[in-house]
Specification:
Elements lengths: L10 H14 L4 E8 L2 H8 L1 H18 L3 E8 L2 E7 L5 H23 L6 E7 L7 H16 L6 E3 L2 H22 L4 E9 L5 E11 L5 E2 L5 H7 L2 H21 L6 E5 L10 H11 L7 E6 L7 H14 L2 E7 L6 H6 L4 E4 L1 H7 L3 H16 L3 E5 L4 H9 L4 E3 L7 E2 H9 L2
Parallel strand pairs: 4-5, 7-9, 9-10, 10-11, 11-12, 12-13, 13-14
Antiparallel strand pairs: 1-3, 1-4, 2-3, 6-7, 6-14, 6-15, 7-8
Helix pairs in contact: 2-3, 3-4, 9-10
The protein binds ligand C2E and magnesium ion (MG) (2 copies).
């Protein structure tokens, strides 16, 4: 049955139409899977009529825009699938067309939503010569789309076998996460932030680790993406926050002046209506003054739904938490954005620091950047500092705090306490 809202095919019709095309026409095709990131946010904040209008716009843009469209459907909710003939189209042109399509979709959506401009996620699968299994091809395009969804820097992802590995990895990680979560056995490590002036630990970042049944420690690079994809990252982040609230409470009960502990807040939290209350409630439950907690928000998050995120970040700061922009220098870093973001701290990412220190020009850029950030009264933390030489350079540029292997890796809390708290 055709989709009454958009006039596109329904999923079943699409499968039979697209299946017939790829069997009969001996040409090259791709499957594109498209969805709108956090579409539910448009529905709840702009109303369902706007949500419907957005879906119609997407359908319209897809059919008008994509030349050589062999079939297109809304498979469900905000998910669209298209079969596109790519005979005689070179791949560079195709990527440009896709980029343009993304921009058209984004513009059309923000027209309807009065400024909210969510991400469009696109997954692409190129059908192989003679491949006729349309269902399997759609699955692969969807795997690529979901990868795009969990990675803000990759709005369009082309399927590769490597993505299948990630999917399999998720299937392995989730039971380990569930088990550790239930047993409260997720490890929270602390990495010190050292004052560039006094060389003392003035803060720490809480970073999580999973442990498998053989006792192997699993680093975040192996589980964060899977938890983001499934939304379970929300539980992880609250677990970490609870852990550090208990720790700060313990220090205060022992008569120790706590240092500020930061934790990473995934982008997904910002789409929860109660995130601000939830965080404040936890701090209150453990009677932890908010000035001892710092919330790290990845730079790219601020590009998503800027107004909504800035509002929530403001509420968190009004309550007394510190907020930092994490991973600065990895994504769409923009000085004009830094000028309007309501944050206290900018964390320069380790890859940015390393890359900048390699060349004269990079050094000048970093020096100028730190100077500007200092002038607008932002604290600057340099991550990934591994040598004394790097430390002395970034300190001479005016960086306030150093976080890096030069001082310590993230370490278990008892080790952290004996090195930095109960000295
Ligand atoms: P991040 O928030 O930017 O954390 C800093 C990462 O840089 C940590 O990696 C830390 O071990 C690493 N690092 C610090 N100094 C150095 C250095 O000198 N050299 C090198 N090579 N690396 C250094 P880690 O612990 O593997 O965490 C990776 C990322 O995973 C974090 O990046 C953060 O984005 C995410 N993450 C970790 N735990 C959590 C969590 O509980 N919740 C959320 N949402 N994200 C988390
Ligand atoms: Mg961080
Ligand atoms: Mg960072």
């Amino acid at each position: 049955m055709a989709d009454s809202l958009t006039g596109l095919l329904g999923f079943e019709e699409f499968l039979s139409q697209a299946g017939a095309v790829i069997c009969c026409e001996h040409k090259h095709f791709l499957i594109g899977a498209v969805d709108i990131a956090d579409f539910h946010y448009i529905n709840t904040s702009c109303g369902y009529d706007t949500g419907d209008a957005v879906l119609r716009k997407v359908a319209e843009s897809l059919t008008l825009f994509l030349p050589n469209m062999a079939a297109c459907c809304r498979s469900h909710s905000d998910h669209f699938i298209a079969l596109v003939c790519i005979e005689n189209v070179d791949s560079e042109r195709l990527m440009q067309e896709l980029q343009r399509l993304e921009n058209v979709l984004r513009d059309n959506i923000s027209e309807e939503t009065k400024g909210i401009s969510p991400n469009i996620n696109v997954g692409i699968y190129y059908l192989k010569d003679g491949e006729t299994n349309i269902v399997a091809a759609v699955d692969k395009a969807n795997i690529a789309r979901r990868t795009s969804k969990s990675n803000f820097n990759l709005p369009c992802v082309v399927y590769s076998e490597h993505l299948m590995d990630i999917k399999e990895n998720s299937a392995k990680i989730l039971p380990i996460f569930d088990d550790s979560f239930r047993k409260e056995a997720i490890r929270v490590y602390l990495q010190p932030k050292i004052s560039a002036d006094t060389k003392k630990a003035v803060g720490a970042e809480a970073l999580s680790r999973l442990v498998d049944s053989d006792g192997n420690v699993i680093p975040p690079s192996k589980f964060i993406a899977a938890l983001e994809k499934t939304g379970r990252i929300i539980e992880l982040d609250f677990y970490v926050l609870t852990f550090i609230c208990k720790l700060i409470r313990k220090w205060m009960d022992e008569g120790i002046e706590p240092i500020v502990i930061s934790f990473n807040l995934s982008r997904l939290h910002f789409y929860s209506a109660t995130v601000v209350e939830d965080i404040c409630r936890l701090a209150e439950e453990y009677n932890v003054p908010p000035q001892y907690l710092e919330i790290e928000v990845t730079e790219s998050v601020f590009f998503e739904a800027q107004e909504m995120i800035v509002t929530k970040v403001n509420q968190l700061r009004d309550y007394g938490f510190k907020v930092s922009v994490d991973d600065f220098g990895t994504g769409y870093s923009s000085l004009s954005l830094i000028g309007v973001l309501p944050v206290d701290v900018v964390k320069l990412d380790k890859s940015f620091v390393k890359e900048s220190l390699k060349s004269q020009r990079g050094n000048e850029l970093m020096k100028g950047l730190i100077k500007i950030l200092n002038e607008i009264h932002l604290e600057i933390v340099c991550e990934g500092v591994e040598t004394e030489e790097e430390e002395s350079i970034v300190s001479s540029y005016g960086c306030n705090e150093i976080q890096g292997y030069l001082y310590d890796k993230p370490i278990p809390t008892d080790e952290f306490e004996s090195k930095y708290i109960h000295k």
